[in-house]
Specification:
The protein is an alpha/beta fold and 256 residues long. The protein has a single domain, classed as Rossmann fold. 30% of the residues lie in helices and 16% in strands. The chain starts with a strand and ends in a 22-residue tail after the last strand. Bound molecules: fructose -6-phosphate.
């Protein structure tokens, strides 16, 4: 793992931008895996700015999002479709037919999940998967107890996740009970992982992810098994780590 710790969220987002922008410039038809939530917002804002400055061309970029709530139509203000268009896609020259986000309204969810996996295969797999981490250690919506070999499927959201996401819906009750999520096995097939974590509320989960034993009860611990897992933390998210990158936990690799 390559772990980098930054003074604050802005510096972390600058670094995330540098990594993603470098990939887009070097491989204009790259396949990017996107996450939603608060953490990647700084990165998405920078991608929009990079596009406006003429540094980035998204016309050939292909994207796959990690997850979507079941029962929310794409236009719902809290759907992840809406999130991605609002914060990134509508501001850049992405080809809408290159955008893939699970359909939370699919009639046959199982068939839709199989189709989603097949689309990832069809384009040759994901080059770089952006990830956040839940305070309970979830990865995408793979909640504690998820099979570490899982594929894209429907998952029941944990109480902790519905509580954490209540801030977007006004109340915990309003948060959908299910989501479609890429599986842990799906995520692990991405050629590179870029996991971002910011803030004190993530510190325990980050410590478990990087220093704890690999366990289905903390799905994010699986990144320890990935060859190219790159983790960007701010100081607060790193505050419970026993070792930091100066102490040898980090294994630099050629990220470009
Ligand atoms: C979102 C996702 C989630 C989030 C996680 C952290 O697509 O897959 O796993 O990455 O819940 O969310 P934030 O960034 O809002 O703290």
């Amino acid at each position: 793992m390559l772990v980098e710790i930054f003074s604050d969220y802005e510096a972390l987002s600058d670094r995330a931008y540098e990594i993603v922008a470098t990939l887009i410039r070097r491989k204009p038809n790259c396949v990017l895996g996107f996450a939603t939530g608060s953490t990647p917002l700084g990165l998405y804002q920078r991608l929009v700015e990079g596009y406006r400055r003429g540094e980035l061309d998204f016309s050939k970029v292909i994207t796959f999002n990690l997850d979507e709530y079941v029962g929310l139509p794409p236009g719902h203000p809290q759907s992840y479709h809406q999130f991605m268009w609002e914060h990134l896609f509508q501001h850049v020259n992405i080809n809408p037919s290159n955008v893939h986000i699970p359909n939370g309204m699919a009639d046959d969810i199982e068939a839709h999940c199989a189709w989603y996996e097949a689309q990832i295969q069809r384009v040759g797999g994901i080059d770089l998967q952006i990830l956040g981490i839940g305070p309970n250690g979830h990865l995408a919506f793979n909640e504690p107890g998820s099979s570490l070999g899982s594929r894209t499927r429907i998952k029941t959201l944990s109480r902790a996740t519905r509580r954490a996401n209540a801030r977007f819906f006004g109340s915990e009750e309003a948060v959908p009970r299910h989501a479609i999520t890429m599986g842990i096995g799906t995520i692990m097939e991405a050629r590179r992982l870029l996991l971002l974590a910011s803030g004190r509320a993530k510190a325990r989960a980050v410590r478990a992810m990087l220093e704890g034993p690999i366990s289905a009860m903390v799905p994010a611990t699986i990144v320890q098994l990935h060859r190219y897992a790159h983790v960007l933390l701010d100081k607060e998210a790193a505050s419970e780590l026993e070792y930091n990158h100066h102490d040898g936990i980090s294994e630099p690799f050629d990220i470009h």
